[in-house]
Design goal:
Blueprint: H1 2-15, H2 18-34, H3 38-41, H4 43-49, H5 66-77, H6 80-93, H7 96-121, E1 124-125, E2 131-132, H8 135-142, H9 146-179, H10 183-198, H11 201-230, H12 235-244, H13 261-276, H14 283-287, H15 295-324, H16 339-348, H17 350-383, H18 385-403, H19 414-431, H20 433-445, H21 450-458
């Protein structure tokens, strides 16, 4: 068994190195060029149509509001990795890794946008009257390749079992270390709480996430900003390190072991891609249910998702770690994932450590909520509505088993399983990229959409 695990670990480490980074970065650059750099050309318009329209009545048909779809998608991407993954990227890639994390986020916006546009374009209504969509639908209806849709749906549905176990373990471990509560009790309580929400469908999940996600993001980023303001004099140096060491190797410094340029780029790209899940095909499942009058309008919300997750939350963590200096302290390399907690504890005492723990608990809980919905939609696509309810029960059991540390060995298979769903999704997005271009051109040149919005803004009486 150990030999098999060793082989699996070697393959997944290699796969998530240059091969997948090149595939995703290349896809992002290709789509950015194909779509005429839309994310750089229309930033103000994108903001107006997303956060600027939260309190306006949504246009078109759908099951949840566009904002609820965004917060549901963000629940999946904003997780413990935003807190513990960024310090690891800094320790193994140096401060310059943050620059490359920003770069891949900007080109990743084109991938996330394309996935969500396709999800709305090929969505359909299920037996309950809810809008459903995602990679399995655009593979089946857009490419006429149902076998690829089945591969994606089955792969994601199964992959989520160990993934939910990992998330359950993260919460129970955090609760156990901070509040000394038995992990089994935490697991049972979590399963009951999550069950009450997910059996209410996407509408109930949307209502929970639209309150929970903004609250937890503002709470965490707000606390991080306090630390950054306390170290305001360090900011010019932090920016200097991020930009200068993006293109040159950095020597060892205190607890930091140094990094070559290839490692700087690799860790920055990997952190950005892991964080915002561009290309994974999960977020489009949430965006497919949104009320919208055109696929591109909902696609703009997915662009904002990358902005919030990577350019705001991950950047806040990076600035806390860099400006506080914890990354250069002796022994920092031993446990990079603890650096955020150490920084918060240094500035806020024990309450700081508790704050990070509470953020991790909420981040992970919201992730479980949404990925269970994603898994249920795969089962529904494959076997019908009843199968969706059955797989939810399986996932609830996985929370309890994961909380007590069961199946730790299969965690090694997670990265491999993720690659197994990412590759077919990227293939589908590339094959359907001309349809994304057609829809984008239609939206930005039509008197019905972009031109009408611009006219209304310039002339409110229009």
């Amino acid at each position: 068994m150990e030999k098999i695990l060793s082989i699996v670990t070697s393959i997944s480490t290699w796969l998530w190195g240059p091969p997948l980074i090149i595939l995703l970065a290349g896809t992002g650059i290709y789509l950015t060029i194909l779509l005429k750099f839309f994310q750089f050309r229309y930033p103000i318009y994108i903001f107006q149509q997303t956060f600027g329209s939260i309190f306006k009545k949504p246009k078109g048909e759908g099951t949840v509001t566009p904002f609820q779809a965004l917060t549901s998608a963000l629940s999946s991407t904003i997780g413990a990795s935003n807190i513990v993954g960024v310090p690891a990227a800094i320790m193994f890639g140096g401060p310059g890794a943050i620059f490359w994390m920003w770069v891949i986020a900007l080109v990743g916006m084109a991938i996330k946008f394309s996935e969500s546009v396709l999800a709305v374009r090929y969505r359909e209504k299920n037996e309950a009257g809810e809008y459903v969509g995602g990679p399995m639908y655009y593979m089946t209806k857009g490419l006429n390749m149902k076998w690829l849709g089945v591969w994606f749906a089955f792969g994601l549905m199964i992959e989520l079992i160990p993934s939910i176990m990992v998330q359950g373990n993260a919460v129970s471990s955090a609760v156990s270390s901070s509040f000394s509560i038995n992990p089994l009790y935490t697991g049972i309580f979590m399963a009951l709480l999550v069950g009450l929400i997910v059996f209410g469908g996407i509408k109930r999940i949307g209502k929970v996430t639209e309150i929970l996600v903004p609250f937890m993001a503002i709470f965490y980023v707000g606390a991080a900003l306090i630390i950054i303001f306390m170290n305001l004099n360090q900011l010019p140096e932090v920016f200097g390190m991020i930009f200068s060491y993006a293109f040159q190797p950095m020597a060892a410094l205190g607890g930091f072991a140094g990094a070559a340029v290839a490692e700087v780029i690799r860790w920055g790209f990997a952190r950005g891609l892991y964080s915002n899940e561009a290309g994974l095909g999960t977020a489009p499942i949430a965006h497919a249910a949104a009320q919208t009058d055109h696929p591109v309008r909902q696609g703009l919300w997915s662009v904002i998702g990358v902005l919030v997750d990577t350019l705001i939350v991950c950047t806040a963590t990076a600035f806390v770690v860099l400006s506080s200096g914890v990354w250069t302290e002796e022994g920092a390399m031993k446990d990079p994932s603890a650096l955020t907690t150490i920084a918060f504890t240094n500035y806020f005492g024990n309450a700081g450590g508790m704050l990070v723990t509470i953020c991790i608990i909420f981040f992970v809980l919201s992730t479980i909520l949404v990925v269970m919905h994603y898994g249920a939609k795969q089962a529904e696509f494959l076997f019908g509505m009843k199968a969706g309810a059955v797989i939810k029960v399986v996932y609830l059991i996985a929370i309890v088993l994961g909380s007590v540390g069961a199946a730790k060995t299969i965690w090694q298979f997670l990265d491999l399983a993720l690659a197994g769903i990412l590759i077919p999704n990227i293939i589908a997005v590339l094959l359907l990229s001309k349809e994304v271009k057609r829809l984008t051109n239609e939206f930005f040149t039509s008197e019905q959409y972009y031109l009408k919005d611009i006219k209304k803004k310039n002339d409110p009486a229009a």
